[in-house]
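Note to self: keep these together.
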Amino acid sequence: MRAIRGATTVKENRADEIYSATDELFRQILQENELTNPEQLVSVIITATSDLNAAFPARAIRECEGFESLPVMGMVETDVPGAPRKCIRLMVHVEIDRQLADVKHVYLNDAAKLRPDLARKRDEA
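Structure:
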């Protein structure tokens, strides 16, 4: 089992933006890690910064075809000064046979500054 991390940001605290950004991030994680079978996924933990309260990001994943029964849990991210605002983070637990170094984490938009080392590797691939 491996955990795949990802994060993204939205411009405004609106339900449509939260759902769209979460869906984009989730699908990008699946694509980059060649996860095509919903049975490969174990669970997803989502955190969102406290300034995102217009919607539950988990809904975007639960509405993805094939992933309706996937356990998803949402939480509020720790409010650290200087951290990206309006940020959604995912930790996707999957059953894949890969080395840690071969897992592709995804950081989009302003969240790329959370892990520039991983965002750079992704851009170079």
